[in-house]
UniProtKB/TrEMBL annotation:
This is Elongator complex protein 2. The lineage of its organism: Eukaryota, Metazoa, Chordata, Craniata, Vertebrata. It comes from Hucho hucho. The keyword RNA-binding does not apply. PANTHER family: ELONGATOR COMPLEX PROTEIN 2. It is found in: Cytoplasm; Nucleus.
Length: 172
């Protein structure tokens, strides 16, 4: 008696990865470990959340007037102001549905177990904090978990008249 497992391997090409940008310790935006990241539904932006309580949206933020040839890689840099969420940000997720006005809904999971909702929109001057709007949060009077790991995912479900976004919150 024993346990047997059969696997079928289908050959596929190796994935291709490219490094578009990097930072050094003395020029980094995050000062502690990055715990989570996610791509926007339109693949235009990448968001990171960290133990340093910061959430930052990254991307090719060059204006449309800047001429970039197809052979040149995009210039990836922070596209948002630095959002300080007040606690270690252990999870972050873009909503898979774009919001009106070229903006994005993001869920941020905190080490405390709380989940915050923010709307972010790209702006010409990300230095000001006007690109982030807080939309809501889970009830902090009722702890969602007693452990330090939070996983937040956002899902979309279209209805006949509108799209709805749902947050799935896992604690372990």
């Amino acid at each position: 008696m024993g346990i047997y497992c059969a696997c079928v391997c289908i050959p596929c090409p190796e994935p291709h990865f490219s490094l578009y940008t990097s930072t050094r310790k003395d020029t980094a935006v995050h000062t502690r470990i990055i715990w989570s990241c996610d791509w926007s539904a339109d693949n235009q932006y990448f968001v990171t959340s960290s133990r340093d309580k910061k959430v930052i949206v990254w991307g090719d933020c060059s204006s449309s007037e800047t001429s970039v040839t197809p052979d040149e890689p995009p210039v990836i840099r922070p596209c948002s102001s630095i959002l300080d969420v007040g606690d270690s940000a252990t999870a972050v997720s873009f909503c898979p549905i774009l919001c009106p006005g070229n903006s994005y809904l993001l869920a941020v999971g905190l080490e405390s177990g709380q989940v915050l909702l923010y709307k972010w929109g790209p702006s010409e001057e990300p230095a000001g904090a006007s690109d982030w709007t807080r939309y809501g949060e889970t009830d902090s009077s009722y702890p969602l978990h007693t452990h330090t790991h939070t996983l937040v995912c956002m899902h979309a479900r279209p209805t006949n008249t509108q799209s709805q976004a749902f947050i799935t919150h896992f604690s372990f």
